[in-house]
Write a structure and sequence with these properties.
Blueprint lengths: L1 H4 L4 E9 L5 E6 L8 E2 L2 E3 L6 H13 L7 E12 L2 E13 L13 E7 L8 H9 L7 H10 L3 E5 L4 E2 L2
Helix pairs in contact: 3-4
Length: 167
Amino acid sequence: MESKRFSQIVVGGLGVVVNSKSEILFVKQRKGPYAGNWLLPGGGIEYGETALDAAKREIMEETGIKVINGKFIATYEMMGEWEAGKYHILMITFLFRSDLPIPPNFEGHNVDGIVWANPQKIKLHPTDMLILKDSGLNDLSDEEIKSALKDNAIKMNAYTKNLTRPD
């Protein structure tokens, strides 16, 4: 089933959730091409749902934290290959603020862990390196990000109203 889902372009909503300590909300992905990595919460848009509502729903399903008032960051396009074949993902990404704690004993949907973390103290997935840089939440160089994406055979583009950043 998982490989069938990725046989088409997957379009999703993604959330960068930041608290007042400048920590970011991450989930340990259980399925998909980036399984086993700490990632920003997000997932597929359901028919009739806006991208913003999808990001909010995915954050709630994966972390138990309700967010409101997201601000558009960019749309990210990610392409690569994994054991199930090729993938092509478009993630419409929003920035949220929240100081809510992770609910005790909460088990997120399709995730194996949830954490608030300083982005300098967690192993960032290469895709999140670029997203967090564009969000103003890390100071990695463009060369560091390009190198990490290349090392993981990920082609990634960012599209905003002010910026088009090819891999």
